[in-house]
Amino acid sequence: MLIRYELQKIIFKRANQIVVILLAILIAYTCRNAIQKVEWVDDKGEVETGHAAAVKLQEASEEWSGVLDQELLEKVLAELKEIYGSTKIDVQSEESNWLLRNKLQGMQDLADILSATFGEKYGTYEEMVADLQPEDLLLFYEERMENRKEWLYEDETSWGYYNYSENEKKYILSQYASLESPIEVGYHEGWVQASEQIPALLKYGIILLSFVLAGIFSDEFSLKTDAIYYNTLHGRTKATAVKVGIGFLVITVAYWLSVGVYSMIVLGSLGADGANYCIQSHVSYWKIRESMTFLQEYLLTIGAGYLGYLLIGFLIMWISAKTKSPVLAVLFPSLLILLPEYLWGFYSPTMRRIIGLLPDKLLDIGQAVEYLYLYTIGDNIMTAVPILLTIYPCLTVVLVFLCYHEYRHKQIA
Hints:
By secondary structure, the chain is mainly α. It folds into two domains: 2-36 and 188-412, no CATH class; 52-185, no CATH class. It has 19 helices and six strands. The strands form three sheets. Strands 1-2 form a two-stranded antiparallel sheet. Strand 5 and strand 6 form a beta hairpin. Helix 11 (189-222) runs antiparallel to helix 14 and helix 11 packs parallel to helix 15 (294-323). The longest helix has 34 residues, at 189-222.
């Protein structure tokens, strides 16, 4: 009966029904954004997006798929020299822009990775293409390491030069040295767009869900039924445990339903090819020193996101139970997401490390991987990810206990 009562109270509350509608709109909007990011430019300059563009891009990528070894690198360079030698480049010309995009489709990521590796030595991309020779490509993977060494030890304008200790710099370079090479490349846009857009879904989703969670405890005060929970044994024990369980159920169902629908739509539309390619095969991840595949990175993202939902969700419930009001509880997720942006204004190496451990990183674990947050504990150096995935599960368990104990305390009083 208690479970049925709590479920009915949540389902039939008008505000919660509005939240469900808004959550569905958010999922649809985020899916649309992810799908529309994939573009195909035809030979007339017309741009297609979405599934049709993904299919054409996948077909064009087949020619440039495989192991990124000397043979494929030379093939890419030869094609770039042909394209830039036969195309009049004018940065002010829209026609020149779409002509290049049309010709580079299928190999754009590889062209960008070449730029990320060798481009810093040249003033323009055209100069790099004209000057690079096949023998230069023999040092392709070594050049990435050299770029990182320069970033850490020689470039006094880089934050890598100032923000890491000598031991941390050695740790970073050892991680780069352990990366797989040569890597396998091919079409992977479905995974890239799914990973890049999901943090927005998770952050705005928890803000919406806070309106539901904040009422699980505090609604009893607005409905004037709180006296039951304070004056009956089962109300203070069994009913409170049911509320905690209902909160867990709401968080779990809302999260996995949202993520499941989003993943099926985005990957179903853009394709799930490339799941086992390492993330460095995309230019945005080329300089990341973590060795993982696109599938592993996505599973880490949604796993950490679920932990973030549990942590923030039970914190919302505890705040609402403690204050007897949903107002502060509803404000908390927004403040949590805005806090890092505010703290960046007080930037320092210490503040950067603090920002790296804030709970909002659970909703965007990719940022924690990309931004090279490092922590030295004794003789050990570790990244933010294992710390986040160790501290916050423990804190979540504590919050579950506090949610239940809030009413047990009332019984003792």
